[in-house]
């Protein structure tokens, strides 16, 4: 089980604590709130022992370390890997920071 953050901004934000409070949004881009995209976080684990509840804490940690305020879940897929066709769960989310006016 692993999670990786890839920045999409050239200027990084300072990290927040590894276990910061970070929102998880699963219903798409929030309307009426302005935000800046910081990057993409992807998590992956064996589908037979990893699902969203297992992968999400790792994704949240990566989002906090990137300075994010929220994760917007983009996709959740299961695919077969290797010659044995071992099922793998992959979840992708956008890490965002709310803009203050």
Strand content: over 45%
Distance between the termini: 38 Å
- What is the chains' assembly state? single chain
CATH architecture: 2-Layer Sandwich
- Average pLDDT confidence is 89
Report the radius of gyration as a whole number of Å. Answer: 14 Å
CATH superfamily, by name, is: Hypothetical protein apc22750. Chain B
Give the low-pLDDT segments.
none
Count of helical segments? 1
Number of DSSP E strands: 5
Which CATH C-level class is it? Alpha Beta
- CATH-defined fold name: Translation Initiation Factor IF3
Going across the major beta sheet, what is the strand order?
1-3-5-4-2
What does this structure look like?
It contains one helix and five strands; from the N terminus they run βββαββ. The chain has a single domain (2-98), classed as Hypothetical protein apc22750. Chain B (Translation Initiation Factor IF3), CATH 3.30.110.70. It has one helix at 52-65, and strands spanning 2-7, 23-25, 35-46, 70-81, 86-98. The model has no long low-confidence stretch (mean pLDDT 89). The radius of gyration is 14 Å and the shape is elongated.
């Amino acid at each position: 089980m692993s999670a990786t953050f890839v920045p999409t901004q050239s200027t990084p934000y300072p990290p927040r604590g590894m276990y910061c409070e970070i929102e998880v949004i699963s219903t798409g881009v929030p309307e009426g709130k302005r935000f800046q995209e910081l990057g993409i976080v992807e998590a992956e684990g064996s589908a037979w022992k990893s699902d969203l509840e297992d992968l999400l804490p790792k994704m949240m940690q990566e989002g906090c370390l990137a300075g994010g305020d929220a994760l917007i879940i983009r996709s959740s897929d299961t695919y077969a890997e290797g010659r044995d066709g071992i099922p793998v769960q992959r979840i992708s989310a956008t890490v965002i920071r709310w803009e203050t006016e």
